[in-house]
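Customer escalation, tier 2.

The customer says the design service returned an amino acid string that "doesn't look like it belongs to this structure." They asked us to rerun it and document both sides in this ticket. The original structure tokens are below, unchanged.
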């Protein structure tokens, strides 16, 4: 936040009739233990009261809210040899990304702690959770009903409803968001007045009214920021595209961080990725035709999925696209909500408002159909089956360059056979030896090769017989294990 933002925030907070559960005023008293307890209490209280942030403000009288200034400078104070900011952060569990702002207002020193609301579990300080009851800090365990509210609180829309920037003018909203692309994607003309633009942004909850000012939501900023660097908490959520020279990370050719919001920058992102991917030259009857090694539809859908299904509450960087000479890996923060074996037939998103808008403007497919298209395109291009992996804190999808059947290992063949059976099932068809031969381009006289792959996939527990009573292998049909 810049100085003007901080001034507006201070005025807004001091205009409150009283201290409340998510705002506390102090003059001095910067005892580290006391500050840590208050951060825990305000974070938990903000969660209960559906506030994105709570505030601990130094330099304001808690009785009449007059601005008196403070001698407490939390960014410079120490506990022993350690800055108290770091000392407190180490003792909060889970770690919360609180921010400290120090500035002068009318010649008086002010310090504001901006404290994110607890998400899905209470915030503890030194193994104890606290809560604000009126203007008093108490131990949360003494109020079990309040504690239950935090544990029960759904986190899916917490990010989307959170605020990326607060108390700014309508002029600043239009300056920070790419409103032209917003209206272009909706196939609407850009309104001639700022008020009409803001009205439409308000209707999509990209912006919320705050008295005479506006707040840009995380949803609005992550989709339509002209530059994500303008939003402190979202800057690291920009997608990165990294191109390597070979099959490993030893030599990096290009490391390009994204700049724009996901919706406003999506087409440029896909063009950039495709430009870095290898291609083959096919010689036609009269002309040479350049054919991309990877289907553009699959790249588009996998990148869109990485953006909309990520866990924004995971610390660290946002989605990453890594391009090697033999594969492309797309990784997003957060473990899968559903098992990777069911990506092709089930759908669930952490960020439904984000996903809904991306579908609405045609950036990604309707629910449940995107991965179908990825698998179908991999088959059409005769590529190995995509590899969907749930890692410790991430989800990774690998799309491989062309390989002959002999170049694929047993695991590759089993994965392709399983995905083929899934694709047939969701298309209301059934996998057979013949359809699998077509998938792998196996000659009909080599049907036994397809039979071996089917047997291996059955032994892996990934497919089953459609009709167990049918003893004819020639006419056998198969289903995915979950069907």
């Amino acid at each position: 936040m810049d100085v003007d933002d901080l001034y507006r925030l201070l005025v807004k907070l001091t205009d409150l009739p009283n201290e409340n559960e998510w705002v506390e005023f102090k003059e001095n008293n910067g005892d580290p233990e006391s500050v840590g307890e208050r951060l825990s209490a305000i974070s938990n209280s903000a969660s209960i009261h559906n506030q994105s942030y709570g505030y601990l403000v130094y330099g304001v009288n808690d009785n009449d809210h007059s601005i008196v200034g403070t001698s407490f400078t939390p960014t410079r104070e120490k506990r022993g040899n350690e800055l108290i900011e770091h000392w407190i952060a180490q003792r909060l569990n889970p770690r919360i990304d609180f921010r400290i702002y120090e500035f002068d207002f009318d010649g008086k020193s002010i310090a504001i702690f901006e404290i994110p609301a607890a998400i899905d579990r209470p915030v503890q300080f030194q193994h104890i959770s606290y809560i604000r009851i009126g203007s008093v800090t108490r131990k949360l365990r003494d109020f079990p009903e309040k504690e239950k509210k935090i544990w029960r609180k759904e986190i899916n829309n917490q990010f989307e409803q959170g605020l990326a920037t607060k108390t700014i003018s309508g002029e600043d909203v239009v300056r920070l968001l790419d409103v032209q692309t917003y209206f272009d994607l909706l196939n609407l003309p850009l309104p001639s007045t700022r008020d009409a633009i803001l009205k439409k942004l308000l209707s999509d909850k990209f912006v919320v009214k705050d008295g005479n000012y506006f707040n840009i939501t995380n949803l609005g900023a992550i989709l339509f920021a002209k530059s994500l660097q303008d939003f402190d908490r979202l800057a690291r959520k920009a997608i990165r595209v990294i191109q390597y020279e070979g099959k490993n990370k030893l030599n990096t050719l290009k490391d390009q961080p994204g700049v724009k919001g996901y919706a406003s920058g999506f087409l440029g992102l896909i063009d950039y990725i495709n430009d870095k991917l290898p291609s083959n030259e096919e010689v036609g009857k009269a002309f040479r035709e350049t054919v991309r090694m990877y289907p553009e539809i699959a790249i588009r859908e996998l990148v869109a999925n990485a953006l909309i299904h990520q866990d924004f509450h995971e610390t660290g960087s946002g989605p990453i696209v890594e391009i090697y000479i033999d594969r492309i890996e797309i990784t997003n923060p957060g473990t899968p909500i559903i098992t990777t074996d069911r990506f092709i037939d089930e759908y669930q998103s952490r960020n439904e408002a984000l996903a809904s808008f991306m579908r609405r403007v045609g950036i990604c497919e309707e629910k449940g159909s995107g991965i179908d298209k990825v698998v179908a395109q991999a088959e059409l291009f005769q590529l190995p089956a995509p590899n969907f992996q749930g890692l410790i804190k991430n989800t990774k999808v690998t799309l491989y360059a062309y390989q002959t059947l002999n170049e694929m290992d047993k695991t590759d063949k089993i994965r392709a056979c399983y995905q083929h059976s899934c694709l047939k099932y969701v298309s209301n068809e059934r996998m057979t030896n013949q359809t699998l031969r077509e998938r792998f381009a196996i000659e009909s006289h080599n049907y036994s090769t397809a039979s071996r792959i089917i047997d291996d996939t059955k032994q892996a527990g990934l497919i089953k017989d459609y009709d167990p009573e049918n003893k004819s292998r020639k006419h056998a049909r198969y289903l995915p294990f979950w069907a």
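Tier 2 assessment: The sequence is consistent with the input. The domain at 404-483 is CATH 1.10.10.10 (Arc Repressor Mutant, subunit A). The radius of gyration is 27 Å. Sent an explanation to the customer and offered a walkthrough call.
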